Amino acid sequence: MDNLNQVHSGKLYKLNNEVVDYSAEVNFNEYYECNIIVYDANKEWYDKLKQTENNSAEIKLYSGEYISIFNFYIKEFTIHKNINEPEYKGTLMKAVSSNVIWGRKGFPADYTFSEMCMEITDGHELIGVCPYDLNSGCVDRSMYKNINIPVITEPVRVDTNLGIFHFDATPQYYSERDRFSIGISHKITFQPLKPVMVRDFHDVLQKITDFFSLLSGEIVTINKLKLIEHSDSNIDVCEFVGYCNFPKKSLNVFNNGVKDSASFKRVSVFKVTDFTDVKKAMDYWFDNYDNVHNAHQAYGRIMFDEELKAVSINKFLAAMQMIEGYAQAFIDEEKEISEFKIMKENIIQQLKDESDKELVRNGLGLSGITFRNTTINYFLEAIEILFEKTSKNAFKEKYGDLIENIVNDRNYYTHSSRRTEARLSVNDA
């Protein structure tokens, strides 16, 4: 939004789909949160809103545009004067929301949209498509003659189990008084398989942005989001304001050090077009997102530390949490329990004293998958994906000391153990 810091005034005409008539003002902070001020609202409405979840409001601005606000919460309610009057004139109600639609009409809370169009942080990099044929006539251009750069606009379409994605990279032109330059613009169009209500937007958008955060190793946020409404007569476009998991101005810029000469993109950023089967990759992410969500949050902690250019114990523990979360998400617990019971019974059968058998039978329980095995399985799978197949025994023989040190330090920092000391330096961790 270009007018992010401005105050917008208008009439609040609906609260939770009931007709009202109050003066209101709205403005947005750097996180794209909407701050709402309602003047002269009666206390009856305040009490109702405090007891209701998923509150919604519709405001018609004096400019003629509409703001629809969802899932807001009451931040403050004050009475300034005339306390004894039944209408409580002179009240001030302040609310906050991060789900706002800005458009040419108001929308109720249960409204659904069939299409979204978004721009994300450095999306032209993450898509990996160059809209210019820079190989054509490059010799002539280097000699400053026959300057002609053909344009290629072929979107990448991916049909996933969440919906249909179109990834577009298009030319962008900048002109000033004495210069002209060309660049790359992008957009990601998403058509969900099922219409998504506004209150569910954040869940869907987080799955999408987290996928790109995983590719790039950077925090990715949505800079612009348009909601597209199709009807028989026309297409209406509204702006959604509120999904911003991190202010763009404080995000890292991707490493510019090395270029991929084939696509003119930075090789340090993994791109949509790098996948041989991007549908399979995205389906896998969306299918398993709920399982690995907590682990991905730990991954975010690591990236935040990178943002501060700091190596810390917090980063080490976040990495350990991430490893455990990703590995544990796909463990077959029933199989582990079954194997444990068989091993336990074999131990009991080897004992002769009944009291020993009873001790093992009652005292030996499955405490869960050990962190050591989780770490081994995680690194083993990573090596097999990136490099070559190897046996677990060969892996343990080669990396046994490293695994031992990782497990030791994880226990040391997690449990503040006095029985051991840290073995890895902060930089090693």
Polypeptide structure, described:
With 429 residues, the protein is an alpha+beta fold. The chain has helices at residues 43-50, 123-127, 138-142, 201-216, 278-307, 313-328, 333-350, 354-363, 371-386, 392-415, and strands at 8-15, 18-28, 34-39, 55-61, 66-79, 91-97, 99-103, 112-113, 115-120, 156-159, 163-175, 180-192, 196-197, 222-230, 235-241, 259-260, 265-266. The protein has a 6-stranded antiparallel beta barrel. β4 (55-61) and β5 (66-79) form a beta hairpin. α4 crosses α5, α7 runs antiparallel to α8 and α9 (371-386) crosses α10. The protein is globular and about 85 Å long.
Please provide a brief summary of the model:
With 429 residues, the chain is an alpha+beta fold. It has helices at 43-50, 123-127, 138-142, 201-216, 278-307, 313-328, 333-350, 354-363, 371-386, 392-415; strands at 8-15, 18-28, 34-39, 55-61, 66-79, 91-97, 99-103, 112-113, 115-120, 156-159, 163-175, 180-192, 196-197, 222-230, 235-241, 259-260, 265-266.
Strand order of the largest sheet: 1-2-3-6-5-4
Mean pLDDT: 79
β-strand number: 17
The helix-and-strand class reads alpha+beta
Shape: globular
The main sheet comes to: 6 strands, antiparallel, barrel
Percentage beta strand:
25-35%
- The poorly predicted ranges are none
Figure out the total of helices: 10
How many whole angstroms does the radius of gyration measure?
28 Å
User: N-to-C terminal Cα separation, in Å?
Assistant: 41 Å
Helix/strand order: EEEHEEEEEEHHEEEEHEEEEHHHHHH
Helix content: 25-40%
